[in-house]
């Protein structure tokens, strides 16, 4: 009876928020201690702006277009959205963002999205194989992601969890995560730690300290290990003890929904 009651309670709790909201809230929480964040457009931008409204009001958001300390009132549509420049502490040339701030080791966290991720957190955002007789599917491309992943103190990735996104072998390696083992980043002279977490709508994966292979460490409310494994294109390993993420608070949901609504009202 207790098991049935627990399951019913979990189902009721899960009904109060969506899986996307779970993912976005947990991605925002991952920025609680960061000082500076180089932000990608899309899900990373949603999470970073939510973090600034909730767990880390002093977080400095940096976008590839040269805006430093942006405080957008809505979700930006692109790195060229005027809202980023209008609300920034400073706007500097793009070469300065990369040469001085990024390559100079002055940015704590890089937050990126992905179309495909492999078991070592390498990323594809360039092209996907659509099958025999079909043209390649073109994606947005690299942008600044390879430099961000190489030089930020650490990297967070966020994407929805499916076998299309979590693949055994990337169709194209756009951005290096951990290469193919724990020493590849050092061998290539990359100063940053690389990806430290992959946050999805099912849970959180982190690289194993010994092998650098992504390992399931936390599940979102209402999600099982079997569900995550079924949505992963390789034999996913799990931590010895898989934790559980806390459900979104009322404040987190209110701020997240307000942020999204502000963008819709101006569309």
3D architecture notes:
This protein is of the alpha/beta class. It has one domain (2-262): Glutaconate Coenzyme A-transferase (3-Layer(aba) Sandwich), CATH 3.40.1080.10. Helix content is 31%, strand content 20%. It contains nine helices and 14 strands. The protein has helices spanning 2-14, 19-29, 43-53, 82-86, 94-102, 145-151, 184-187, 225-230, 250-266; strands at residues 36-39, 60-63, 67-68, 90-91, 109-112, 116-117, 123-124, 127-128, 137-138, 154-158, 195-199, 203-207, 214-219, 237-244. The strands form four sheets. The protein has an eight-stranded mixed sheet, with helices on both faces. The protein has a two-stranded antiparallel sheet with strand order 3-4. Strands 6-7 form a two-stranded antiparallel sheet. A hairpin with a 6-residue loop joins β12 (203-207) and β13. α2 crosses α3. The longest helix has 17 residues, at 250-266. The radius of gyration is 18 Å and the shape is globular. 40% of the residues are buried.
- Which secondary-structure class do the elements indicate? alpha/beta
Computed CA radius of gyration, to the nearest angstrom: 18 Å
**Main sheet strand line-up:** 2-1-5-10-11-12-13-14
Helix and strand pattern: HHEHEEHEHEEEEEHEHEEEHEH
Reported by name, the CATH topology is Glutaconate Coenzyme A-transferase
Q: What's the overall average pLDDT, rounded?
A: 93
Largest sheet: 8 strands, mixed
Number of helices: 9
Domain unit count: 1
CATH secondary-structure class: Alpha Beta
| CATH homologous superfamily assignment | Glutaconate Coenzyme A-transferase
Note the beta-strand portion.
Answer: 15-25%
Tell me the overall shape.
globular
């Amino acid at each position: 009876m207790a098991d049935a009651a627990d399951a019913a309670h979990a189902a009721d709790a899960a009904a109060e928020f969506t899986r996307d909201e779970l993912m976005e809230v947990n991605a925002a929480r991952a920025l609680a201690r960061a000082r500076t964040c180089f932000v990608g457009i899309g899900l990373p931008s949603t999470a970073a702006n939510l973090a600034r409204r909730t767990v880390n009001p002093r977080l400095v958001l940096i976008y590839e277009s040269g805006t430093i300390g942006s405080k957008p009132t809505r979700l930006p549509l692109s790195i060229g959205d005027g809202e980023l420049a209008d609300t920034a502490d400073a706007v500097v040339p793009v070469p300065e963002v990369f040469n001085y701030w990024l390559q100079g080791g002055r940015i704590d966290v890089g937050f990126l999205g992905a179309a495909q991720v492999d078991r070592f957190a390498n990323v594809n955002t360039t092209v996907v194989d659509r099958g025999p007789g079909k043209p390649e599917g073109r994606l947005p491309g690299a942008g600044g992601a390879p430099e961000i992943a190489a030089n930020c103190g650490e990297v967070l990735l966020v994407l929805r969890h499916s076998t299309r996104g979590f693949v055994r072998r990337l169709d194209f390696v756009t951005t290096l995560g951990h290469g193919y083992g724990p020493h590849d980043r050092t061998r290539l002279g990359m100063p940053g730690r690389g990806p430290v977490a992959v946050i999805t709508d099912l849970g959180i994966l982190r690289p194993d300290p010994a092998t650098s292979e992504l390992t399931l460490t936390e599940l979102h409310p209402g999600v099982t290990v079997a569900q995550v494994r079924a949505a992963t294109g390789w034999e996913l390993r799990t931590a010895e003890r898989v934790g559980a993420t806390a459900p979104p608070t009322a404040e987190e949901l209110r701020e997240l929904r307000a942020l999204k609504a502000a963008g819709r009202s101006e569309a």
